[in-house]
């Protein structure tokens, strides 16, 4: 269990001090065009003479200030940070489109002369890069050609260079699998955030919840029904999403035949899915479940019994396309374990022992699924966003950087 002296560890505690970059780094900003015509932005931190670049991306968050940037630069690698076309925005995050965003950056880095391109995926960035590597390694005609909502996607026509190596830090199993475990199944009325099914409420003391901060204790029977009910809720939302997607597809077909602007409007009009209460994984408050060094609480706060009802959370507002592509555990292709079967490049996988989103059993399955001959796994003390587990300890980022440095130096040309 975690040290009782753990520092401020959730919410505001995501900010972790890093180190200063080396002198001589030249930073330039770039706008890139994707194969399907979108525009994405990135920043190149270039070390003079550097032949290796480490690439940071996340499907739904900006990584321009990730604490490991300076560490990689001090190792002797240049660093590329890039946004997808929908940073900090769940509403239209379609992972298949995000792969085209990754591809634009990979082409750019090759075109400007780097000999080795190593991708770095932290948290959801791990699944994004695993999915990209899997698809890039396939012959174009074998790549996925439609999104889970049925929209054509141009992966077959895109140039998708395969990276030379992959670094994964605290990768979770994918947004869909995370939500599958933290969506609240006790929501009774879909449009009422306060509606409740009492026997499925993990925050009800009658079901095993204890005072906030004290580890709860749930029965096996409760957990079994809770997990089954979570899946049923996802299935219901999937049904709504598929209905919306089918309506839009029908309108596109009609417009192709009639060119009636009303059909065009219907095809374009978003039907937004609002998903209340998605901060409700029993592991947040029962520390005997999937035991590790994590502190009490979720990624969003020390009081998940409250944040579950707040605005912040996973997959709260989405289109049908985004729900099916990213947030549905049953429909998404962006599942780390599924994608890992396509990773044959050298791989370094580091987990945090106090992770609140990726647990040891997840790491066991995910790492085992990687067929690369050159693969290494390690664990360091830290929380999901690199916070130290106790006052006076190094941050998780600092500990991971030492291992990444040793691994990279043995395989790539660092300045």
Major sheet? 8 strands, mixed
Residues in helices, as a percent range: 25-40%
**What's the level 1 CATH class of the largest domain?**
Alpha Beta
Which whole number gives the mean pLDDT?
94
Strand line-up in the sheet with most strands: 1-2-4-3-5-6-9-10
Number of domains: 2
Apparent shape = globular
Give the number of helices: 11
Query: Which fold name corresponds to the CATH topology of the largest domain?
Result: Rossmann fold
- pLDDT under 50 segments (min length 5)? 1-12
What is the chains' assembly state? Answer: single chain
How many angstroms does the end-to-end distance come to? 41 Å
Kindly state the number of beta strands: 10
Order of secondary-structure elements:
EEEHEHEHEHHHEHEHHEHEH
Mind telling me the C-alpha Rg?
22 Å
Q: Write the CATH architecture name of the largest domain.
A: 3-Layer(aba) Sandwich
The structural class is alpha/beta
Instruction: Tell me what portion of residues adopts beta-strand conformation.
Output: 5-15%
């Amino acid at each position: 269990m975690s040290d009782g002296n753990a520092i401020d560890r959730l919410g505001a505690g995501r900010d972790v001090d890093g180190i200063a970059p080396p002198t001589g780094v030249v930073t330039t900003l770039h706008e890139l065009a994707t194969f399907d015509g979108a525009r994405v932005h990135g920043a190149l931190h270039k070390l003079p003479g550097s032949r290796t670049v480490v690439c940071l991306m996340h499907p739904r968050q900006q990584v321009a200030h990730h604490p490991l940037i300076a560490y990689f630069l001090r190792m002797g690698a240049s660093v590329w940070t890039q946004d997808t076309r929908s940073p900090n925005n769940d509403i239209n995050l379609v992972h298949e489109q995000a792969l085209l965003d990754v591809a634009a950056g990979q082409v750019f880095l090759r075109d400007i002369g780097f000999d080795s391109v190593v991708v770095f995926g932290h948290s959801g960035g791990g699944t994004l890069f695993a999915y990209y590597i899997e698809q890039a390694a396939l012959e174009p005609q074998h790549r996925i050609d439609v999104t889970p909502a049925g929209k054509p996607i141009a992966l077959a026509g895109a140039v998708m260079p395969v990276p030379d190596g992959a670094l994964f830090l605290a990768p979770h199993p994918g947004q869909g699998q995370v939500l599958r475990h933290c969506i609240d199944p006790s929501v009774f009325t879909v449009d009422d955030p306060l509606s409740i099914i009492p026997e499925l409420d993990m925050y009800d003391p009658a079901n095993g919840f204890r005072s906030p901060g004290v580890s709860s204790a749930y029965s096996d029977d409760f957990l079994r029904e809770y997990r089954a009910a979570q899946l049923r809720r996802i299935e219901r939302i999937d049904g709504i999403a598929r209905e919306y997607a089918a309506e839009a597809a029908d309108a596109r077909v009609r417009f192709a035949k009639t060119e009636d602007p009303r059909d065009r409007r219907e095809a374009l009009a978003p039907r937004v899915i609002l998903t209340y209460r998605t901060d409700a994984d029993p592991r947040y408050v029962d520390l005997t479940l999937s035991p590790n060094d994590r502190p009490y609480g979720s990624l969003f706060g020390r009081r998940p019994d409250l944040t579950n009802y707040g605005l912040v959370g996973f997959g709260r507002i989405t289109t049908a396309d985004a729900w099916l592509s990213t947030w549905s555990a049953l429909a998404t292709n962006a599942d780390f374990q599924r994608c890992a079967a396509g990773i044959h490049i050298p791989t370094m996988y580091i987990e945090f022992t106090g992770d609140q989103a990726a647990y040891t059993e997840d790491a066991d399955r995910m790492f085992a699924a990687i067929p690369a001959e050159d693969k290494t796994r390690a664990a360091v003390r830290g929380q999901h966003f690199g916070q130290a587990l106790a006052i006076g300890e190094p941050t998780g980022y600092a500990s991971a950087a030492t291992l990444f440095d040793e691994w990279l130096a043995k395989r790539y040309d660092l300045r």
